[in-house]
Amino acid sequence: MGRQASPSKDAVPSDALDSASCVFRHVARTSRAVTSTYDATFAPFDLTAGQFDLMMTLHHSGPRPVGELAKLTAMDASTVPRAIRPLVDKGLLAVRQGEDRRQRIVSLTAAGRKRAIRAAAAWEKRQRAVVKDFGEESWSAMMQELARLRTVVRQKKAANGAGEER
Fold first, then answer.
1. Residue 22 CB contacts under 8 Å (≥ 6 apart), including other chains
2. For residue 52, which of 35, 66, 67 has the smallest C-alpha distance?
3. What is the pLDDT of residues 83-136, one digit of tens each?
C-alpha cells in the first residue's frame, strides 16, 4: 500500500467557505455587468457610467469640495481628482480654489449641465428597462439590502481601523 501524501501547509482547508458564495465575487461581477450596460447607454454622450454619476451628483447637490464629492459618491477622496480630470479636460466640470488654498471646489459647467441633462434622458430609459426586467419589488428590496451591506462593510472597516488583518 502506498503512503498517502500529507496535505501541504498551503492547502486550503476542506471546510473553507465555498468561493461561489463570496460577497466580493458576486458584488464585483454584478457591478461589472451593470456598469457595462450603463456605459453603453452613455457612450453616445462621450461619458462613462461613473462620469455620469459624478455629474448628476453635482447637478443635484451643486458645487462641492473634493472630499464632500467623494463622500456623496462613495469614492475615496484620493481617486476623485483622477475621476474628474477627463470631465475637466472636456469642459464639463470646473475646479476652483476654495476658501482654504488646499481646498478644491468641483462644479458643473454650463456645457456639463447640458450634457448631463441630455444623458439623463437615456439613463431614464435604461433605468426603466432594467427595473422592469428585474422587477420593481425586487429592485426596491435589492436597494435596501445593498444599503445594509454597505453599512455592515463600513462598520467592519471602521472597527478594524480601516484595514483587515493581513
1. none
2. 35
3. 999 999 999 999 999 888 889 999 999 999 999 999 999 999 999 999 999 999
CATH number assigned to the domain covering 47-159: 1.10.10.10
pTM (predicted TM-score): 0.80
Of 21, 30, 52, 22, which is closest to residue 39 (Cα–Cα)? Answer: 52
